[in-house]
Design brief:
mainly alpha; globular; 16 helices; about 5% strand
Length: about 475
């Protein structure tokens, strides 16, 4: 099976996950009425899903780290199906929280494995599009799943909507289990690898910014229906949820193309985050003009979902073999942010905040993420400039007495005091103090004191990635 068809299967699984995660937000009033709890308490079922995605999934991933990618994906989908069936059958609030937690852990196991597999199945120049397709599956689940769930719930009850999601999981399970080809590489990094990735400053910056974005975007989305009722005094939220979701699909798919064409995922990510802050800040006043509320909704959906693509791409491009661990960490931060955001939103509503104004603190969090990104990147640049730094394409520069210098295309240069100098074509050059020089044709040239040096061939040196934070 071709890489594109295999990626489509992974997108189908992501579609089921996206439907499950976000359809619940639209069903909160019905769930609360059925289980005799408030909307803010029902919203904690979304918190349970997202919190277990962020925290429990890495633990399961560590246990399953030696399993094959396809086995991990199938296991996640089996748990997902069982959990959603349990939600549809539950008769208590405790049962609701428990089954949502299990479903969240399954989604957390599936999504980073699917993203890593998608990148492994296609050539490097198509990785952005592959990531966009898989992550676009989640936003497509939102586009179809949330409004469809509301329509089904209106006619047959919220439990029928959960059975519909369970059926989607069964279809995804059949497709991935029967037709996904073997994928090289570990789909489930260990806990040590995940936390080791967090110890790297640039990974920590990416993951932290992802956290702030999802506190703002996913946290607010949990309560989108009551927000819309207060902002625009609407009768049915379904058309507005369609608009938000359509923006999400378009953003996910276009973001991959933009990453591939520009090679600047870091710049794209911070631009999207700033646009999200502006859209959320506009929302409370958009209801004053008929139809104007659609503008911040579609922008919010587009930039909120598009943001995930350059973030994942940055981690995979910079981290090499450690990319799977970094992506898993970033996925955990995504849903940890959603859990924190939905918990804080429910707390604010429970303490009397008008739902109309809930977008304003969310916009503030998104703006804080922009400021943190710019400040952290500037601080990293200053630190690296002062003491042998790593930039653009894994740049490690050292100067002075014989220290190495690595630049754009993995170039290792050493100077003056007898150290070696490797140029862009894999050339290891040594000068003055008697070191040898091997040039592009593999020739070992010796000078003054006759010492030799072995270099790498041109084919051994990877091309530099245009990937700035």
């Amino acid at each position: 099976m071709g890489g594109t068809r295999a990626v489509t299967l992974l997108a189908l699984g992501s579609f089921a996950m996206g439907t499950d995660a976000y359809a619940m937000a639209g069903l909160l009033p019905d769930i609360g009425a059925d289980l005799d709890v408030s909307v803010s308490l029902a919203g904690q079922s979304v918190t349970a899903f997202t919190l277990c995605y962020a925290l429990a999934a890495p633990l399961f991933s560590a246990v399953l780290a030696r399993w094959g990618t396809r086995t991990v994906l199938v296991t996640a989908l089996v748990v997902f199906v069982v959990a959603n069936a349990g939600t549809a059958l539950t008769g208590s609030y405790a049962g609701l929280l428990g089954t949502r937690a299990l479903a969240g852990a399954a989604a957390g196991l599936f999504t980073p494995a699917a993203a890593t597999a998608a990148v492994a199945l296609v050539p490097p120049e198509r990785r952005g599009r592959a990531l966009g397709l898989v992550l676009g599956g989640m936003s497509a689940g939102t586009v179809l799943g949330v409004p469809l769930g509301l329509l089904v719930a209106a006619n047959s009850g919220w439990r029928t909507a959960l059975w519909l999601i369970t059926g989607l999981g069964v279809i995804a399970l059949a497709g991935v289990g029967l037709a996904l080809p073997p994928v090289r590489g570990a789909a489930a990094p260990s806990l040590r690898a995940r936390f080791g990735a967090l110890a790297r400053p640039r990974v920590a910056v990416v993951v932290s910014v992802t956290f702030t974005q999802t506190v703002a975007s996913l946290g607010l989305y949990t309560y989108l229906e009551p927000v819309l009722h207060r902002v625009a005094d609407i009768g049915s939220a379904v058309p507005y949820l369609w608009v938000w979701g359509i923006g999400g699909v378009c953003g996910s798919l276009l973001a991959g193309t933009l990453v591939d064409r520009t090679g600047r995922p870091g710049l794209l990510a911070v631009t999207l985050l700033g646009t999200l802050a502006a859209a959320l800040a506009l929302l409370p006043w958009a209801g004053t003009v008929p139809g104007l509320v659609l503008l911040p909704l579609i922008v919010w959906g587009a930039v909120g979902w598009a943001f995930v693509v350059p973030q994942q791409h940055r981690l995979l491009a910079r981290e090499g073999e450690g990319g799977a661990a970094a992506v898993g960490l970033n996925s955990s931060a995504t849903y940890l942010g959603g859990a924190v955001g939905s918990a804080l939103g429910g707390l604010a509503l429970a303490h009397g905040l008008d739902a109309r104004w809930l977008p304003l603190p969310a916009a503030g969090v998104a703006l804080a993420g922009v400021l943190f990104h710019l400040t952290a990147v500037r601080a990293l640049a200053k630190r690296e400039a002062g003491a042998g730094h790593r930039d653009g394409g894994e740049v490690d520069r050292r100067d002075g007495a014989g220290a190495g210098h690595r630049d754009g295309g993995e170039v290792d240069r050493r100077d003056r005091a007898g150290a070696g100098h490797r140029g862009r074509g894999g050339v290891d050059r040594r000068d003055r103090a008697g070191a040898g020089h091997r040039d592009r044709d593999g020739t070992d040239r010796r000078d003054r004191d006759g010492a030799g040096a072995a270099g790498a061939t041109v084919a051994e040196v990877p091309e530099p990635e245009r990937n700035t934070p």
